[in-house]
Write a sequence for this structure.
């Protein structure tokens, strides 16, 4: 899957992973009574924590690609950092380190839970594989994509949907690059009711694309967040 649009959750998490390494280096320096920014401190930190550093880099790469198992790598990395911090605390029992460690745990829990929810979004989960022989026929919800001038671009089959995003299979081949950065209109008709929302391209996978639903409202029109609720009631998606 190719990620075309990264939101604040993605960028903030990547920054937090980097800052976790910086934080661990800071605690290591404080517990050993050496300068935080000295060359000696940095060399000593990397020589003693090369595994955590390497695992952190690997976690960042997996998070950047929004892999399904990225939450497990993130949890393992955060546990490694937190565990090492408390080991350093046990050797020095510095009250300031104790307070900082608990503050770090709060932030780590927040970022983990946020990411755990992020990777379950519909735009990152097509619910089909590229080698599936039949894709569109497996899904009942149909729709259309229109550009900003209300010109029909293609018919679509919705393979996954939630209240903030969706993944659709394109019935006509369209270069994803032509849709990037465009504000598109998604339209679907279910049981005689038309649902319309604005969206932006977020991901590309095989014959389909993922969209993030924009909060921009259309007067007197049902939105795709409502469509999602109807789909749940009808058992079209779980």
């Amino acid at each position: 899957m190719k990620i075309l649009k990264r939101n604040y959750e993605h960028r903030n998490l990547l920054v937090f992973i980097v800052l976790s390494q910086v934080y661990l280096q800071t605690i290591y320096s404080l517990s050993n009574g050496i300068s935080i920014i000295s060359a000696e401190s940095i060399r000593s930190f990397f020589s003693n924590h090369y595994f955590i550093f390497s695992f952190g880099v690997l976690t960042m790469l997996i998070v950047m690609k929004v892999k399904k198992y990225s939450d497990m790598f993130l949890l393992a990395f955060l546990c490694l950092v937190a565990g090492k911090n408390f080991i350093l605390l046990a050797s020095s029992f510095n009250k300031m380190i104790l307070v900082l460690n608990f503050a770090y745990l709060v932030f780590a829990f927040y970022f983990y839970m946020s990411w755990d929810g992020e990777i379950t979004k519909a735009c990152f989960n097509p619910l089909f594989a590229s080698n599936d022989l039949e894709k569109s026929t497996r899904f009942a919800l149909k729709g259309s994509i229109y550009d900003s001038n209300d010109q029909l671009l293609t018919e679509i089959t919705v393979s996954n949907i939630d209240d903030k995003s969706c993944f659709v299979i394109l019935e006509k081949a369209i270069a994803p690059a032509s849709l990037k950065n465009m504000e598109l209109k998604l339209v679907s008709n279910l049981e005689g009711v038309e649902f319309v929302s604005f969206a932006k391209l977020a991901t590309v996978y095989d014959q389909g694309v993922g969209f993030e639903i924009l909060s921009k409202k259309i007067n007197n029109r049902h939105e795709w967040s409502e469509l999602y609720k109807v789909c749940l009631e009808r058992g079209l998606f779980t």
